[in-house]
């Protein structure tokens, strides 16, 4: 069990932090980007990269082949819609996707935009980890975080209809 503090100051005990997040008990910093019957999208603000999205399952499972047919359809549908919104509302040309199955409880896909500045951290997929660390360690300043927060709002707005 973990103790979390809600926005109203109340504290609650939760068994799984991701359940509290995807179930709406706690609000991710910056807010929810989009939510479907089976999935929940938010940004991990610990890695302040504009337009980065984490798409997490609401149910506990960790491998792609554990999805039900309804989850598979919902997953591909919302993944595509988020991708389209990244392109049309934020001008993101390329996205790197990854998920790891040795996670705890919740299947989640990282959608990491590929920006030009990232090429100095390596070519293609080899740059992903250095880029995330760079963002976490050097981009956590207010100006960038404000850009990240407004991108969350732009994506949420684009996905509202
Ligand atoms: Zn959970």
TrEMBL record:
Record keywords, A-Z: Methyltransferase, Transferase
GO BP term, pick one: methylation
InterPro entries, A to Z: HIT-like_sf
Keyword Transferase attributed: yes
Signal peptide: none
The keyword Transferase appears for this protein: yes
Molecular function, one GO term: methyltransferase activity
Any coiled-coil regions, as ranges: none
Top-level lineage group: Bacteria
EC number(s) per entry: 2.1.1.-
Protein name per the record: HIT family protein
Source organism: Chungangia koreensis
Lineage: Bacteria, Bacillati, Bacillota, Bacilli, Lactobacillales
């Amino acid at each position: 069990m973990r103790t979390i503090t809600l926005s109203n100051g109340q504290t609650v005990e939760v068994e799984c932090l991701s359940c509290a997040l995807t179930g709406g008990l706690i609000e991710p910093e910056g807010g929810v980007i989009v939510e479907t019957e089976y999935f929940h999208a938010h940004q991990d603000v610990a890695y302040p990269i504009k337009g980065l999205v984490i798409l997490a399952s609401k149910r506990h499972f960790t491998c792609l082949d554990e999805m039900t047919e309804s989850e598979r359809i919902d997953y591909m549908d919302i993944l595509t819609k988020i991708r389209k919104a990244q392109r049309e509302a934020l001008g993101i040309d390329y996205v790197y996707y990854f998920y790891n199955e040795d996670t705890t409880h919740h299947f989640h896909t990282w959608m990491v935009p590929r920006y030009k500045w990232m090429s100095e951290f390596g070519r293609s997929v080899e740059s992903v980890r250095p880029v995330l660390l760079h963002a976490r360690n050097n981009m956590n300043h207010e100006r960038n975080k404000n850009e990240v927060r407004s991108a969350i709002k732009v994506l949420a707005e684009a996905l509202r209809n």
